[in-house]
Amino acid sequence: MLLFEGALRKWFLPGLSTPLLIVRDPVAFSLLFYGIYWKIWTPNIYIKIGVLLTFFSFIVTLIIGHGNLPVALYGTRILLIHFPLIFLIGHVLGKEDVEKFGRVIVFIGIGMTILVAMQFFSPQSAWVNRGVAGDLSGSGFSGAGGYYRVPGTFSFTNGLTSFYGLMFPFVLFFLFNGKQKVIKKSIIYIAAVSYLIAIPLTISRTVFFQSILTLILFILSPNINSRVLFKVLLGITAVFFIVVLLNNFSFFNDSVAAFKARYDSANRVEGGLEGVFLDRFLGGLVRALNTQNIPFFGYGLGLGSNVGAVLLNARGEFLISEGEWGRIIGERGILIGFAVVILRVIFSISLFIKAFIKSRQGYILSWLLFSSGIILVSQGQWSQPTALGFAVIFAGFILATTKKQTHV
Description:
Elements: H1 5-12, H2 24-37, H3 45-64, H4 69-92, H5 95-121, E1 141-144, E2 147-149, H6 157-176, H7 185-202, H8 205-219, H9 226-246, H10 250-270, H11 273-289, H12 306-311, H13 324-360, H14 365-379, H15 385-402
Antiparallel strand pairs: 1-2
């Protein structure tokens, strides 16, 4: 549902684009309900704290906040439904299950790149580029070189970026794990090439930099050995020759030129590596600390989301902050907002520790998933349903691959 929700909203059920925005919510709620009803799992301390903080914020929102019940309910779903789902996924699934999911994601990734190429080279009026609710103006976002940043099957480009961030750890894991029998090596080679082709097609610096980060942390893995490093060297050499080969095709040259133009223009505005990571992460923290104009109990749950803005007739503009931590503190106030931020940071640190320990034990998938998903988990824009969905998947998969055994 996460991967194809955008396809339904754009192409197949455009008339239901608004309710499909939260189509995963009742499914997630049902999973949580039956998980507790059948005594498969019990809420842990993270969930209890999140529920308590959200309940308090909900009451305050209705009494002294914006007072809009639908907007407030939309804001509660993050910590009441989706955050707990992380731990249910981690409890029910095991590493073998996650590897099977990875196989499916790799297969979908090959098809996704084909779709992305079609969108990239097609006009915005083409069917594959229709926007949400069948918008004929197209779904492409500002790009460069006369080309648009395309969304794949998703409603917006951030979904495609997160998808490739999820695909790449599985590609690396399957490539360098000689013992795996989940997927054929030939499919992995095709997926690796398709991923390489997709990087310039997305015209996304985030895809490029998150790939570099995952590769660096893979090489710095505490359990890496000379045999794997030799394979990595061979892989880099193969990538070099593949790029040389692809340079003979105009579609690759055009996408690389557009990516380079986007990279250069964005660097002039935001900066390079620091613009993608340091400013968006540490800069978001600094801006979140600027609370002088925020009421002590905040403006109210849901107000910082696009959906909340639309429901309050603000044309979908950000009413609080585009940064996630700024949104949390703006909605919930200084005290409760900081508590929620700290909760997410502590949880992210716990994922790091679990993934690091598992990597030292010789299982690297958890570490690769962490390297690609940590920003989404710690500071991702959870008010946006697609980003929230991928954060849940990343964190749930990390928990599932770091536990000792499967419970169900």
